[in-house]
Amino acid sequence: MIRSGMKWMFLIVGTMIGAGYASGRELWQFFGHDSGLAILLFTILFSICCYVILSISYEKQSQHYLPVLRTIVGKHLTLLYDGMILLYLFTTTVIMLAGSGATWQAFHFSYWVGILAIAIPLVLVFVWDIKGILSMNSFILPLLIGGLLYVLILFTVQQELSIFAHLGEQKNWTAAFPFTALNILPLIAVLGAVGNQMKVKGEIWIASIGSGMILGTISFIYNNSLIQISEDILLYEIPLFAILKHYPYEMFLFISVLLWIAIFTTAASGMLGLITRFRKRFTGPMWLLALLTLMLMAPLTSFGFSTLIKYLYPLYGLLNLYVLSSLLLYPLTNRYKSQ
C-alpha cells in the first residue's frame, strides 16, 4: 500500500513541479513577501483537493478524467471544463516542447535537436502504457526534488539565513486560493486517468498528504530564499539563476539539467491526460497516440505563446476557483446526498 501510494504521490508532484514552479517564477508571482500563512494554506488546500480527486477517481474506477470532472462540476459545466482541460494540456505541452528546444539552444545545439530530445523519450515512456509514466516518476522525481532542495538548503546555509524568519508574515494569505486553483485542472486530468489502477483507499491518504507536505516544504524554503534576492529577481527571467549567480558553472549546468527534467515531467503528465482522454476512440497503442499528438504539436512550437499564457492563465485561475470550491465542499455535499 505504501509503495503504491508513493507512486501516486510522485505522479502528483511530477504534475505540479513544472518548469514554471522549478524555476521559481510561478512561486514568486503568487507568493513572495508576507506569504508564510499562504503557503501553509496552500499545503492544506492542495492535500484536500488531491484526496477528493483521487477518491472520486477510485470510486469511479476511471481510465480518463471525464467521469471525475462530471462528478466535480456537474454535467452542465462538464463540456466547458473539458474544453478548458484539453486546451490547457495541449498548450502547456507545446510550451514544454518549446522550452526544451530553447534549453538545448542555450548550449549551442539546434532548436529542433532540443525538441527531439524531449519528444523521443515522451513516446518511449508510453510503450509501457501508464506503468511507464509511473516508473519514470518514481525514478526521476526523487532526483528532481533532492536536487532542488540541495541547492535551496545550500543557499540558506551559505547565506546564514533563517528558514523560519518569515513564518509570521501573513498579509498575502489569500494567494493560496488562486495558486491552488491554477494547478487543479492538470491534477484532475492526470489523476482521473489512474482510478482503475488503485487497489485500496489507503493509497489515497499517502498520496494526498505526502504530496502536500513535499510541495509545501519546498515552496516554503524556496520562497524564503527568493525573498533574500528579491531585488535581483527582476534582472532574471529564471529566478533560480539569481540564487546561483555566485556559484560555479558546474552548478549552473546541474540546475539546467534539473529544469529540463521538470519540463519533461510536465510534458509527460500533459500527454498522459490528453491521450487517456481519447484512448477509447483510438484502437492503437498509447505510444502511437503519443507520437501522433507530438507530430501535431511540433509545428506549433515555433509560435510565441506568451500572449496566450498572459490571457489564458488568469482566466484559468478565475474559472478554477469554482472547481476549487466544488472540491473543498465535495466531502460535505456528498455526505449530505448519501444520507
From TrEMBL:
PANTHER family: CONSERVED MEMBRANE PROTEIN, MEMBRANE PROTEIN. It comes from the Bacteria. This is Membrane protein. InterPro entries: YkvI-like. Keywords: Membrane, Transmembrane, Transmembrane helix. It comes from Pontibacillus marinus BH030004 = DSM 16465. The chain crosses the membrane at residues 38-58, 79-103, 109-127, 139-157, 177-195, 204-222, 251-275, 287-305, 311-332.
